[in-house]
Amino acid sequence: MNKLLLNEQLIHFFNEDIGFGDRTSEAIFADEKCEAHFLAKQDGIFAGEDILKQGYKLLGSDIILEMNKKDGDYVRAGEIIGRVKGKTVDLLATERVLLNLIQRMSGIATLTAEAVKQLEGTKTRICDTRKTTPGLRMLEKHAVRCGGGFNHRFRLDDAILIKDNHIARSGSISKAVRLVREKTGHMIKIEVEAETMEEVREAVEAGANVIMFDNCTPEEAAVWRRETPDSVYTELSGGIALDNLHEYANTGVDFISAGALTHSAPALDISFNIEVNGGTKNGKNQFV
Question: Which strand ranges, in their side-by-side order, compose the sheet holding 190-194?
């Protein structure tokens, strides 16, 4: 993860939420210090260790964070992810931003881990897409990796992906690949989206490095995979859900890309509790 970019984002997120100060906490607590903890309220995969470390580092050296879990760790409901000590005003002013981010990331990691489990016994890898929340792509794609998944393109300049609109406008897969090769360096891979057997064959003939089988049935994907040389990577996308992942993976494709990993993952429920007399702010002892 790019720590410099993360710091820039966290500063922006804090400024958006805090404004000129937390009026409520500043009026009540002044320079009081406290200890608090992040509590998992659901089973899942934790992601967001750097969010907490970098976030608190921005506030000053007098904040002490102790993590019980690291990125990719399984957490059970009731487990404490980490504890933090510092000024009550600082901890409460940053609570919402930090919780929003780690809940979002942990939800993505948890859904990804479920997808990875569905692929056990196959060679297929699960990948994300560019269907991410604007501004959060680095964090959401990091969360996919925490869940055991793999990243597709981060940005449009990562690789060439010739999709249906490119093909339609240029006239054919062959022409689109030729035009791309004339203007692209040898380090950039070329992927082509195919929706029919004829397009798969044309993409192979044109010299594509990767062929994406788009919106096809498992039966079609199995046939198309047999028509594709082993030297060409194959990818499946479109219409794929957790309950049919294993069926698609059994077609022998190398990758399955699923936008749902990032655009449809529910947040993992995590709370932030200030400790009061050995318990929490609501008086319930959490340390059993």
Answer: 125-127, 255-257, 233-237, 210-214, 190-194, 160-162
